[in-house]
Amino acid sequence: MYENFKSEIATQISGLLGVSADIIELAIEVPKVATLGDLALTLSRLRLKGNPVQLAQKLASEFQLSATITAATAAGPYVNFRIDRTTLTRSVLQAVHTAGSQYGWTSEGAGKRVIVEFSSPNIAKPFHVGHLRSTIIGNFIRKLYKANGWEAISMNYLGDWGKQYGLLAIGFERFGSEEQLVADPIKHLYDVYVKINKAAEEDPTIHDAARTYFKKMEDGDEEVLGLWKRFRSLSIEKYKDIYAHLGVHFDVCSGESQVGEGMERAMKMLEDANMLVEDKGAKLIDLTKYKLGKAMVQKTDGTTLYLTRDIGAAIERYETYNFDKIIYVIGSEQDNYMRQFFKTLELIKLPYADHFQHVNFGLVQGMSTRKGTAVFLEDMLMDSKEKMHDVMRANEDKYKGVIDPEHTAAVLGMSAIVIQDFSAKRIKNYEFDWGRILNFEGDTGPYIQYQHTRICSLERKAHVSINLDADVSLLTEDATREIVTMISQYPDVLALSFRTLEPCNIVQYLLKLSRAVSSAWQTIKVLNQPKELAEARLLMYASARIVISNGLTLLGLEPIERM
């Protein structure tokens, strides 16, 4: 956004310091406090000899001002620059409309490929709110990498293998109903899973039977695999509906059961690296000297575990996709396991071991599938949709103008859920609370959507059209200056979000921009204003609408035009 201005400043400072303009340009950024200037040179980043405060004063006094750069002032070890307001405003607003949905995007990752593995629920269990975090964070990261020029592959790695499916099969034999399975498969399998876990608390031999059942699965027993395949197929069909509601697309859908000979190769590599330790018939990896404890890779009965399958999957994925990076979006409760996994990849000397990254997040507390206290995502989506529908119906005139009120209510409900989840840093735990999730007051998703729809309505009603050559010198008010400045900062917010992979940066920015638009709304009017003034203000508001739309889309939400 500021490239041309940075280049002009860097070229002149280069002549004064004898330092490469490219190096200087990297030290020029938008200051956090807008009143200080439009751009600031941080001298400490140049690592020059001498007193940086005195050097800043010298550079400010010697800098030759121009029609574009109208002021240069020293502030401690910084030199702050002011850009001609009209030039900056025109540049910002035209850039937004020229780039449109790709405003703020870069091509930094061109030619690189990233796999983002996220969501990854366990089959035969309902999609609950805990799964939602991985799904929406992973979807955000995929979109963020795409916005930075990477080829981003989204992967759903289903938990479809392990002793728990032996447990479920035994539970189905005891508590299952074919009629209920056909009527509502996921709900029935969930009920069965809760009941068999409760029974196993009183009768531990159930777990032994489950282990025996899973061993038959690994040995390829067609009868036991038949039931497992049915549970898997029913689950996947249900998940497809959920992902469609969430607007989430996966390029690859695989599962632990589909890891092939990579698993055998993984065990061979572990053996060749002398990493396996026998313990009562089981095979372990001893990582205690790395303060990571011990990790089991094969049980006494020869069945595999997560780590074995994950190493095998990693090998197969690299050979299939030749990725430059792979990101696992998995909750913080798995932090130690992921460290064990990555350390093992390093110790077996995979040449691409440094391509792996774990992006963690805090827990949604107050839920447990085994105890039957999970809050199903479908229930929450339905409740939030109905609550928003009630709010919409309260304004009969506006409600009549909504083309598809059911869909709009669903989008607003989803916006409430996602923005609430993304409002703080992803590592933060939070207690599940219906009241908090469905609160539509204050800094919420529906509030951001409302500001977007207001501007859409304004564009429909305005007596002037968008004019990229509008006289933006007429935007003289502090409120318009604040909005234009915020719009100019969106690329930097994107860059920060890409470095940290924190959606809260986008959310807080959108809330701030929405508040700025709301504050200006009553005084910075477009309707019934002179043509030139109306055009300039409409261009500004429409630019804000594009940025809000882009931000919502990046967060995985659909921007709506009427509500």
Highlighted features:
five-stranded parallel sheet; four-stranded antiparallel sheet; 55% helix
Concise account of the structure shown:
The protein has 563 residues and is of the alpha/beta class. It is 55% helix and 11% strand.
- Sheet-strand content, in percent, reads 5-15%
Shape: flat
**Tally of helical segments:** 21
Overall average pLDDT: 91
Number of strands: 14
Task: Quickly give the structural class.
Answer: alpha/beta
Helix content: 40-55%
- The whole-angstrom Rg is 28 Å
Order the strands across the largest sheet as they lie in space: 7-6-5-11-12
Q: What is the rounded distance between the termini?
A: 32 Å
* Low-confidence blocks of residues: none
Structure characterization notes:
The chain has 563 residues and is an alpha/beta fold. Helices cover 55% and strands 11% of the residues. It contains 21 helices and 14 strands. The chain has helices spanning 3-17, 21-26, 52-62, 85-99, 129-147, 163-175, 178-183, 185-202, 205-218, 222-246, 262-272, 306-321, 335-347, 377-393, 396-401, 405-421, 434-437, 445-461, 478-500, 503-521, 531-554, and strands at residues 28-29, 39-42, 69-75, 78-83, 113-117, 151-158, 252-255, 276-279, 282-286, 294-298, 325-329, 356-359, 364-365, 430-431. The protein has a 5-stranded parallel β-sheet with strand order 7-6-5-11-12, sandwiched between helices. A hairpin with a 7-residue loop joins strand 9 and strand 10. Helix 6 (163-175) packs across helix 9 (205-218) and helix 14 packs across helix 16 (405-421). The model has no long low-confidence stretch (mean pLDDT 91).
